[in-house]
Specification:
The structure holds two protein chains of two kinds. By secondary structure, chain A is an alpha/beta fold. Chain A folds into two domains: 2-125, Rossmann fold, CATH 3.40.50; 138-255, 3-Layer(aba) Sandwich (Rossmann fold), CATH 3.40.50. Chain A contains 14 helices and eight strands. Chain A has a four-stranded parallel β-sheet, sandwiched between helices. In chain A, α13 (217-229) links the parallel β7 and β8. The longest helix of chain A has 18 residues, at 190-207. Mean pLDDT of chain A is 96; it is low at 257-261. Chain B has three domains: 37-75 and 337-424, Fumarate Reductase Iron-sulfur Protein, Chain B, domain 2, CATH 1.10.1060; 77-327, 3-Layer(aba) Sandwich (Rossmann fold); 436-504, no CATH class. In chain B, the strands form three sheets. Chain B has a six-stranded parallel β-sheet with strand order 1-10-7-4-2-3, with helices on both faces. A four-stranded mixed β-sheet of chain B has the order 8-5-6-9. In chain B, strands 11-12 form a two-stranded antiparallel sheet. By secondary structure, chain B is an alpha/beta fold. Chain B has 22 helices and twelve strands. The chains are: A alpha/beta, B alpha/beta. The structure holds iron/sulfur cluster. Iron/sulfur cluster binds at residues 295, 344-350, 373, 401-404, 406 of chain B. Iron/sulfur cluster is lined by residues 295, 344-350, 373, 401-404, 406 of chain B. Chain A: InterPro entries: Cys_rich_dom. Chain A: One of its GO terms (molecular function) is oxidoreductase activity. Chain A: It holds the Pfam family CCG.
């Protein structure tokens, strides 16, 4: 398949290891990955903070950039983020309709229909749960709110993780509780956000895991920031990074930046 | 409905808050406007977060009820269909509210009741006060009701020299302490047993002097106190969970039986009800009487369901008044995006699952309607600028449990857009900073080339990182680094890496 990658703004600028891992993984599975360079952001931050007018140009750029998927130029768009996928699926059309752009709103729907979060793409579209990964570490999984409730990815990420050779998946207490990131919530309500984070960090530490994984770098940045501040030594890693790791080219939790290829 | 959920055991030795104002028992006091009081949400939340005991109490109570709710909801095979039905009935009610209200008025009147219409809190309070005064009494008993909390009825009656006695245990605790409710269903959830004993000893004249903080003893003291009130009151005031348009029937569901006492013993019954509480037919109650108790107390059925239709000669109150309260509801109704907030049946499930509510409690919301439903309902009812739409991470837990499927996260997003528009007309310093930041981000994020340059900016922060992390940033980054580290930004952005790789090929 030809798969276009929407890297997400935050991963592009701050956590390139996640989109790199997606490239590594999909190429290993025999697919072609395309990165349309005109992309920037899905508009989630602006929409969720209430700046709809400011969201319009951002959303338009995303839809224009990924429109070729609707014409069959690519087979799918993959996004290594549950919340960005949610924004693409549930907010972009609304923003464009609200701005009086019905044709672009239809285009947004067509793009959204072919856009998948990573675990959805792997399990539902490509039909694989065992991606041939090797990652001999103790891992716990945080189901991010938007993956869980906005997308309904269910246990797909866990199924993918369980199929990883050598990986020990340990359950996380109060896993479905929000970590307190919430985008600009973490700044607008910094104290409440920190209180929620404390509980999440305590639950992660309790698992004794080496690595905390999730399908979204924004939540991982938040929880990871808390894990680091508390000096826990638990490493945040994107689901894709774990799935990209193999015996031949292992990814070690301590190597933050380089996904070998 | 109410349960004993609001009486967690005490861990640390903490009675009423030591920094409480003199003469109060550590409550927030009785505000001028029950829909809008206190500090901003972030400030009130910060204060609440500092109270460790409160956080433990709330955490325990909400976890208990969450687990219970999940279990009993899981027993119902057609739960999703019931939610759909509840939502559809409410949507139908809102679509033809004027017609249904007239039907209700006709049927209540035909059965010997009297219907009054109140546009706002002042009008409703006036109507009730006049009705009570006509009965020449200075004490009334009350069934727990959010509508009368919303309009500050007790305070309005007090000004007329009428004492309104709350008969729900938790509501009584709140009233005695001169406090405000902090939960829709369990208004005293923020109190522990020892505080309750202290409140009874200081404020309940007939409390036994040797009262301990054993729940049973507390309940017995309240019971003895209330029994005297039930037997002497000539007038009772209630809210309503439902009103059936077709038959003119009113319904109240509760757990303690105090409601039933109020609804049957006095000579006169006055019900104050928000105009959205209607259902079209008696059959519709079937849906809600399944949805409500499981969602609210986690019970299969609530212990007491009382229904009354007008008056019945020789049985129960011989005079019945229904006050239909608008108080901003028609304004909410007119708003297509926010309208479904009026579906709410006040079950409080959304409060109990809300991670924000769980940490900060109800008073931080500065409204009788706290939690997720409060965050969408309060600003709509008042129409004022509010920070409540931002008091959520949009995690979606509230939408997942809401028995009438109110998409609270989407409404929050709509209301945030409204807040931005309101801020545009009279921006303060904070509004200006946010606007400027959002505009700049919009510019940078609307074009691949611009973003390529913007994405390289964080790299500069590598200069201040130590061992791969940044521990301190200047404002506004300090809001982040106050409690979390920021990982060191990468040497190379993803897109630069990609471009390099493409060139090598
Ligand atoms: S919004 Fe829904 S969950 Fe919350 S109190 Fe109302 S009915 Fe219950």
């Amino acid at each position: 398949m030809r798969i276009a990658l929407a890297a997400t703004c935050i991963a592009d600028a701050m956590f390139p290891q996640a989109p790199k891992a997606v490239v590594t993984l999909l190429e290993r599975l025999g697919h072609e990955v395309v990165f349309p360079p005109a992309q920037a952001c899905c508009g989630q931050m602006h929409v969720n903070t209430g700046y709809l007018a400011e969201a319009v140009p951002v959303v338009r750029n995303h839809v224009r950039t990924f429109a070729p998927v609707a014409d069959g130029e690519w087979d799918a768009v993959v996004v290594p983020s549950g919340s960005c996928t949610g924004s693409i699926r549930h907010q972009q059309r609304m923003v464009l309709e609200g701005a009086g752009l019905p044709a672009e709103a239809r285009a947004a729907t067509a793009v959204a229909e072919r856009t998948y979060e990573l675990s959805e793409l792997l399990v539902d579209v490509l039909g694989v749960t065992d991606v041939g990964a090797w990652f001999p570490h103790r891992v716990t999984y945080h189901p991010t709110c938007h993956s869980l409730r906005m997308l309904g990815v269910g246990d797909k990420p866990e199924r993918l993780l369980r199929a990883v050779e050598g990986l020990e998946l340990v359950p996380l207490e109060q896993a479905e509780g929000c970590c307190g990131f919430g985008g600009t919530f973490s700044l607008k309500n910094a104290d409440t956000s920190a209180a929620m984070l404390d509980d999440k960090v305590a639950n992660v530490v309790e698992t004794g895991a080496e690595v905390l994984t999730a399908g979204d770098w924004s939540c991982l940045m938040h929880i990871g920031g808390g894990l680091s501040r508390a000096g826990t030594g638990v490493r945040p890693m994107h689901l894709g990074e774990i799935l990209a790791s193999t015996r031949e080219a292992p990814v070690h939790p301590a190597d933050r930046e380089e996904v070998s290829r | 409905m109410s349960t004993f959920l609001g009486m967690p055991a005490m861990r640390a030795g903490r009675g009423p808050s030591p920094d409480a104002a003199p003469g109060t028992l550590g409550g927030v006091g009785r505000p001028e406007d029950p829909l809008h009081w206190g500090a901003t949400f972030p400030d009130a939340a910060k204060a609440a977060l500092e109270n460790e005991q409160l956080r433990r109490n709330l955490g325990n109570a909400t976890r208990t009820i969450r687990t219970k709710r999940a279990r009993v909801v899981g027993e119902v095979p057609d739960w999703e269909a019931l939610r759909d039905a509840g939502s559809a009935i409410k949507a139908d009610v809102l679509a033809r509210l004027p017609e249904l209200l007239e039907t209700l008025e006709r049927n209540v009147t035909a059965r010997g009741g009297v219907v009054h219409w109140a546009r706002d809190a002042a009008e409703a309070n006036r109507i009730v006060a006049d009705l009570v005064r006509a009965k020449e009494t200075d004490e009334v008993v009350k069934v727990k009701s959010m509508a009368t909390q919303e309009i500050g009825l007790n305070e309005a009656l007090a000004e007329e020299g009428i004492a309104a006695v709350e008969t729900d245990l938790a509501e009584l605790i709140v009233q005695l302490a001169d406090d405000m409710p902090s939960h829709i269903l369990v208004p005293a959830i923020h109190r522990n047993r020892t505080e309750i004993r202290d409140i009874f000893l200081e404020r309940m004249a007939d409390a036994p002097p040797d009262l301990t903080d054993v729940p049973r003893e507390l309940a017995m003291a309240a019971r003895a106190h209330l029994r005297r009130k039930f037997l002497s009151a000539k007038v009772a005031i209630s809210g309503a969970n439902f009103a059936v348009a077709d038959t003119g029937t009113l319904a109240v569901v509760e757990s303690e039986g105090n409601g039933r006492m109020c609804l049957t013993l006095p000579e006169t019954l006055i019900t104050v009800m928000g105009i959205e509480k209607l259902v079209p037919t008696f059959d519709d109650l079937e849906v809600f009487l399944q949805l409500l108790p499981r969602s609210s107390t986690g019970e299969r059925m609530n212990p007491y369901t009382s229904m009354w239709t007008g008056v019945t000669p020789g049985d129960g109150p011989q005079e019945f008044h229904l006050v239909l309260l608008d108080n901003g509801r028609t304004k909410v109704l007119a708003d297509e995006a926010g309208r479904s907030a009026l579906h709410c049946i006040r079950c409080s499930a959304c409060l109990n699952v809300c991670p924000v509510y769980e940490r900060v409690g109800g008073h931080a919301y500065g409204s009788v309607y706290p939690g997720p439903i409060g965050a969408i309902l309060t600003p709509q009812l008042t129409g004022e600028k509010s920070d409540l739409p931002y008091a959520s991470t949009l995690c979606g837990a509230c939408y997942e449990v809401c028995p009438v499927k109110i998409d609270i996260p989407s409404i929050l997003v709509e209301l945030r857009a409204r807040e931005v528009a309101l801020a545009g007309s009279a921006p303060d310093a904070g509004d200006r900073v946010w606007k400027a930041a959002m505009k700049a981000a919009s510019f940078a994020m609307a074009d691949g080339d611009r973003f390529r340059r913007a994405a390289r900016v964080p790299r500069a922060l590598r200069a201040i990182s130590r061992h791969g992390v940044i521990k301190r940033l200047p404002f506004p980054g300090s809001l982040w680094t106050r409690s979390r580290d920021l990982p060191e930004p990468p040497k190379q952005t993803f897109r630069d890496w990609w471009a390099e790789r493409e060139d090598e090929r």
